[in-house]
Design goal:
Distance between the termini: 102 Å
Helix content: 40-55%
Number of strands: 8
Structural class: alpha+beta
Strand order of the largest sheet: 3-2-5
Shape: rod-shaped
Number of helices: 10
Order of helices and strands: HHHEEEEEEEHHHHEHHH
Length: about 270
């Protein structure tokens, strides 16, 4: 990046303005001195800390690169002054209709953050640096997401954002613009696809619930089998379990009338049959 800046400044500063150029500059100084102090209003510029000034003398960028911050003196007749803002700017990428790799149409929008790192390149190499960066970001968004599946768009936003940031940064480097960050704001799916995905997710949850319930019944039946084997070895345990059941029913507030029957009576009826 530094080598590009040096080469760019060297190229812009090379070349003589010629004899006529020196004459025009001399006449500009004379006009400046004659029109003092009014000429100071057009020749002195205040450049803020977050700004830089690019000065063109007779159409050529002056050596030394951008000027500022502080006070900058220019000849109003022979020099032109262009102010460049170095602060980070954010741009919304318009909503893009994208056809994904797995043949799904989605609407995606994003936001980019960029700033000018070389004021001379941003003025001399391109007409509208930020506007061109915004248009390039929209094209890059369509190109990158067109190679991704829908699942990747929804789950790998960070990876896609970094890939876009790298591509944009390399493309805007000759313009003197640095792409700081790219963020995908929203991925909008068609309503029919949303309903289909919701139905699929609901069916998957129901299937999982049935499997879990079946496993629970299997474990419960195994536990009941073990309990039956243990209680068959001790008849008193059956009677205690019977009394415990009656006690739990009696604690509830209900109108159920229970007639307890001894277990021996039931066994006698079974023996007679």
């Amino acid at each position: 990046m530094d080598s590009n800046n040096c080469a760019n400044e060297k190229t812009l500063g090379d070349g003589s303005i010629g004899c006529c150029g020196y004459i025009l500059i001399f006449l500009s100084y004379i006009i400046f001195l004659v029109t003092l102090p009014l000429s100071l209003c057009a020749s002195i510029h205040v450049v803020h800390e977050y700004q830089r000034g690019v000065v063109f003398r007779l159409g050529r960028a002056k050596k030394g690169g951008a000027k500022g911050p502080g006070l900058i003196f220019t000849l109003s007749c022979a020099e032109q002054f262009t102010l460049v803002d170095l602060r980070i700017k954010s741009f919304d990428i318009p909503l893009q209709e994208i056809f994904s790799k797995d043949s799904v149409t989605v609407a995606v929008d994003a936001v980019i953050y960029c700033y000018v790192y070389d004021p001379v390149m941003s003025v001399c190499n391109i007409q509208d640096a930020f506007g061109s960066t915004r248009l390039l970001a929209a094209t890059t968004l369509r190109t990158v997401l067109g190679t991704k599946n829908l699942a990747d768009m929804l789950s790998e936003r960070d990876v896609i954002s970094k890939e876009m940031q790298k591509i944009l940064d390399e493309s805007t480097d000759p313009w003197g613009v640095k792409v700081e960050r790219v963020e995908i704001k929203d991925v909008r799916l068609p309503r029919q696809l949303q309903r289909a995905m919701a139905t699929e997710a609901e069916a998957s949850r129901e299937a999982s619930a049935k499997v879990i319930a079946a496993k629970g019944e299997q474990k419960a039946s195994a536990s009941l089998k073990e309990a039956a084997v243990i209680m068959s070895q001790c008849p008193a345990a059956v009677q205690l379990r019977y009394l415990q059941t009656l006690s739990s029913i009696a604690t509830e507030k209900n109108s159920t009338i229970i007639f307890p029957l001894p277990m021996e009576f039931l066994k006698g009826m079974t023996a007679k049959q």
